[in-house]
Design brief:
Layout (H helix, E strand, L loop, with lengths): L1 H14 L1 H25 L4 H25 L11 H25 L9 H27 L5 E6 L4 H11 L5 E5 L7 H7 L4 E4 L1 H4 L2 H8 L7 E4 H9 L9 H7 L5 H36 L5 E7 L5 E7 L21 H9 L6 H7 L3 E3 L6 H7 L14 E3 L1 H5 L6 H17 L2 H14 L6
Parallel strand pairs: 1-2, 1-3, 3-4, 7-8
Antiparallel strand pairs: 5-6
Length: 446
């Protein structure tokens, strides 16, 4: 019985590491609240104080979990090492604390109390306990007994990239084994290394002997994935070198009319609701642009939209007029004005694109629309035209995961992230991108 429970625990850890981290934070938060109330009010008044504080601190828990999510606390990067865990969690907790204080202050009349002293104690106790929890969790993640054993059947160059990434990220909890090519020993290899997952490429999938052997493993609940899907799960992008037209037919042809309609409705609603804020802010930015450099406040440029249709994109001007330069902007570009640097850093230069969004030229979220001149250059990238089957966006998945491209090769790398978005686009992914972009407006950390 004990063996069965331990085996179940091992499988749970292997398959749901980040889910366990999330649930652990919830438990640590609840224990921290109980500790705070016991320390402050003692045993005699504990039950009453717990009932009084339940609703306010449940709201705090909900808010903190959102901030933790936005701050990448539920990614494997957050478990890189103890220094990273401590620094990242402390920063996130400080942000969470001050945002919570602000909310309690603004909406104090809706609560029976404003537990600032309790909140300070909660932040300190939770911080100490959660750092300890995450440190222990990292130790578990890297422990060999809780690793997912992965067998790779592939001769793709991507294998080296995968191996390098996994070796640098022990917190992933992956042990990678490469197939030696001896098909007759495939089944023995799977049993010898207690393989949990087989990653296979097209070459081996087309081999009848291999597929028959893998078919026989289905009853053992071994997960089978393609190299493309495994690479996608690790890097959040689609490897161009591994896909052909067949992949697009399988992955991109899904009808998403309901999603597109919902997305359009939400965009119009948000634009209308935020007008009292965006109009005054836009006026202030326009005045700053006008007084700090000569030229039009609004910059207009022809971009390529859905179905290769050109449209006029609007932005606040961030460059001095009359200065020629390369198609791509680069770090330290002298054409950018002083106020333009701030606007680009915070993405406030893109605020006029809300008008483009209202018109239907673009969406809030999607691949960034490129200049006509650049599109002609980027057409050298395989399948680049697929980028235009959906509306472009003000913000996007590629911007979250890759720097602004300044060469054809970088544009190719960035396009792989656009393919990921096109394949996986949904309201949930859009919300994730929106929240992450909101954080990036004030930091360069992805």
């Amino acid at each position: 019985m004990v063996y069965i429970l331990l085996n179940m625990l091992s499988e749970l850890i292997k398959r749901h590491k980040l889910g366990i981290a999330f649930l652990g934070d919830v438990v640590v938060f609840i224990l921290s609240i109980m500790a705070v109330l016991y320390i402050r009010y003692g045993n005699s008044d504990f039950a009453y104080q717990l009932s009084v504080h339940t609703i306010p601190f449940l709201l705090v828990l909900f808010l903190w979990l959102i901030i933790f999510y936005i701050s990448n606390q539920y990614t494997f990067k957050a478990f890189d090492n103890i220094i990273k865990i401590t620094k990242s969690l402390t920063t996130t907790l400080l942000v969470s604390f001050f945002i919570t204080i602000g909310i309690f202050y603004i909406f104090s009349r809706y609560f029976a109390l404003t537990p600032k002293a309790n909140l300070i104690m909660l932040t300190i106790i939770f911080g100490i306990l959660d750092i300890a929890w995450r440190y222990i969790l990292r130790k578990v993640f890297i422990k060999k007994a809780y690793h997912s054993n992965i067998l790779i059947l592939s001769s793709s160059p991507l294998v080296n990239e995968i191996l390098l990434f996994v070796n640098k990220s022990p917190q992933l909890g992956y042990s990678i084994y490469q197939f030696d090519g001896n098909i007759g020993s495939l089944n023995d290899t799977i049993q010898k290394y207690s393989i949990n997952k087989v990653v296979i490429d097209g070459k081996y999938l087309r081999n009848n002997k291999v597929t028959k052997m893998l078919y026989g493993t289905l009853s053992t609940q071994i997960e089978i994935s393609t190299v493309i899907d495994f690479y996608e799960s690790l890097f959040g992008c689609i490897p161009l070198s591994e896909i052909e037209e067949e992949w697009f037919i399988k992955e991109i042809t899904e009808n998403k009319n309901i999603y597109e309609s919902m997305k359009r409705f939400i965009e119009i609603l948000i634009i209308c609701i935020t007008l009292p804020i965006t109009i005054p802010v836009g006026i202030i930015i326009g005045i700053l642009v006008a007084v700090t450099s000569s030229g039009h406040v609004i910059y207009k440029q022809e971009r390529i939209g859905k179905n290769n249709n050109p449209f006029t994109l609007y932005k606040f001007r961030t460059m001095n007029i009359g200065q020629d330069g390369p198609l791509w902007t680069c770090e330290g570009d002298k054409r950018i004005t002083s106020i333009g640097k701030f606007l680009r850093f915070t993405h406030l230069d893109e605020m006029p694109q809300l008008f483009n969004c209202l018109k239907g030229d673009i969406s809030f979220i999607g691949p960034r629309p490129e200049r006509i001149e650049l599109v002609k250059v980027y057409e050298q990238i395989p399948y680049y035209e697929i980028r235009h089957i959906i509306k472009p966006g003000i913000i996007g998945w590629a911007q979250l995961n890759y720097k602004a491209s300044s060469s054809l090769d970088e544009a190719k790398q960035k396009f792989q992230f656009d393919l990921y978005y096109i394949k996986n686009r949904s309201i949930i992914l859009d919300l994730f991108i929106f929240l992450k972009t909101a954080r990036m407006m004030f930091t360069r950390n992805r």
